[in-house]
Amino acid sequence: MKVWSSVVRSGSAFRGILTSPNGIARPLHSASQHPETETVSTSHMTKMPRLKQLRELDPLPFSSFLTDSFGRRHSYLRISLTERCNLRCQYCMPEEGVALTPKHQLLTTQEIIRLARLFILEGVDKVRLTGGEPMVRKDLVPIVESISDLGVKQLGLTTNGLLLKRRLQDLHKAGLTHLNISLDTLIPPKFELITRRRGWEKVIEGIDEALKLGYSPVKINCVVMRGRNEEEILNFVKFTQDRDIDVRFIEYMPFDGNKWDDRKMVSYAEMLSTIREVHPDLIKISDKPNDTSKAYKVPGHAGQIGFITSMTENFCGTCSRTRITADGNLKVCLFGSSEVSLRDLIRSGCSDTDILEVIGGAVSRKKRQHAGMLNLAKLKNRPMILIDKGTSQRNHHGLQLNSSLLSCIRSNTCISNIVSLHTAQSVRKDDSSSSSNEIYSQPNGPDKLQNRCNPLDKVEKHFSSEHALTEEFNHNNNFWKKFGESYMQGASNEAVSNTSEILPTTCDIAESTPKLSHVDVKGEAQMVNVAGKQVTRRKAEAKAEVYLGAEAFHLVKENKMKKGDVLGVARIAGIMAAKKTSELIPLCHPLQVDHVEVQLSLQEKAEDGREFCVSIKTSASTSGRTGVEMEALMAASVAALTVYDMCKAVSHEIVISGICLLCKTGGKQDYYFK
């Protein structure tokens, strides 16, 4: 190993030496500097570009604490800075949001920096900050600067891009080197439908600002879902034509609360086939070590595309990632349900060495791969927003500390045995976890840990006497209780018992014969039985257009119709009609509608080129066992008829058209108008 004691800071890429708890001295190089211009000044090295200098160094031995039993080196750390987000993406969280962890249970800024430092000292050279939405944190710039000063090579951020243009310059100066932006559509109105918020234009401005500042490439994360945005795949490919961006198409993954169904998932093979129909010259380009994305490029395009194939072709064999949640739990697998609370270790007064022992025990027990697509859909984990925003989901079991467990650590009792015992008890609480990707499953860990172990029965005495394992704050239970959904009644049991119903393959769907739900086997009309369905939050939106002609249009615009305020009366009529839907449509279920909204606007020239239009948009929502699309359509239809009735004295050439459902969410399968 080279001697680093002579390294000095003189415009250098290196900040000096830090010694890790395992005794390895590691040089620190700052991510905030420009690698193409920096030089290293030492007593035994001549000046040369930083990257060349780094390539010529003898690599230090990688930390055994971050190496699992399959030899995978975990050099990539993702840190969730917050659970909060300024969007409400439908595949990520409900419109009302999720039950957030109390502030005092979240990691403080100092705790985040301490954990980042510990991982970097053990060999982590890539850190990514996630959320929630990390940009909602006011202290984001100081956090980036502090982690950059620790000497990490790559410091990235995953964001939805809404605040990017406003904050990126400061983050760039602080040392942010890489950027991922989540964007699922290139159609502004659809962006609002998917995210339940406006802001598509701000995201595009943020992308352009990142390119202007020299981020290369800017990575775009696009979750592809059937019925929502799969028809935009080619548009995203075209988006790379003149921009140095890397669009990564992500297979839709199952997380708590997102109603995952394999019928919604568009596979890597299908996406690739769609692109090659238009771009037969698409070429595969080489992937970097440990890349999650399979990279491709259209010749002549400035940017490239990639596919993150977590569901159909997992990349578990090269996984180098660990995650720290906003409440301080360590997850060594995105889909694993078990977690260890590093926050509790810190607040119990543990030293860095103590914490490192627990981290090593968790990493050493990471499984070879996750449980597979269909099995993952049945298991429980955190909602996606409570893990991190870029890329989860089931009952997670956090390891909390009391004096007994802390004494085990300080007396060098085997941490791996402690974690194993904790997991075994957690599994007994929830048998479904035994089929999941349990990360503490008993493969042989590193020799260093095994040699320090005391017999397991000594550890068990501590647990049996003082109950060191207490139940961690359960995001899932809190989430479902808040929104009145019967999660605890056995959603997982229903998933197992009705597997054939909820998990057909795409081929099954294509080959099945369409059936009318309101017709029985004899061909007679029937009301659908919804007793077996779960109560969920449901919403639908619809639209209609009324073309009045010039004279009637201007009378409505100036509010001079003899019958009164046309738009105001039509709005009230639409709301009343939505509440009466089951009385007007014979087989509709009577629903307790929570909210109905009717919006009317005047357009002298509509999008289709026709003139003098009253545009009507409606929405309805409820918490129930069946959808409210009929209520939304009824509101649009009756509002349109009311406009006709109040204007017919002026003209009988009024045309009502374009009545249709725009979207529905919350049921077995979401729908979006294409």
Describe the fold and architecture.
The strands form three sheets. This protein has a twelve-stranded mixed sheet with strand order 9-10-11-8-7-6-5-4-3-12-13-14. A five-stranded antiparallel sheet has the order 16-17-15-18-19. The model is unreliable at 1-16, 32-46, 370-379, 381-387, 389-405 and 408-513 (pLDDT under 50). Among the domains are: 14-56, no CATH class; 536-672, Molybdopterin cofactor biosynthesis C (MoaC) domain (Alpha-Beta Plaits, 2-Layer Sandwich). α10 crosses α13 and α21 (566-579) runs antiparallel to α23. With 674 residues, it is of the alpha/beta class. The protein has 23 helices and 19 strands.
Brief synopsis:
32% of the residues lie in helices and 17% in strands. Strand 12 (321-324) and strand 13 (329-331) form a beta hairpin.
Q: CATH topology of the domain at 536-672, which one?
A: Alpha-Beta Plaits
CATH class of the domain at 536-672: Alpha Beta
CATH architecture designation of the domain at 536-672: 2-Layer Sandwich
Distance linking N and C termini: 61 Å
Q: Percent of residues in beta strands?
A: 15-25%
Report Rg: 28 Å
Low-confidence stretches: 1-16, 32-46, 370-379, 381-387, 389-405, 408-513
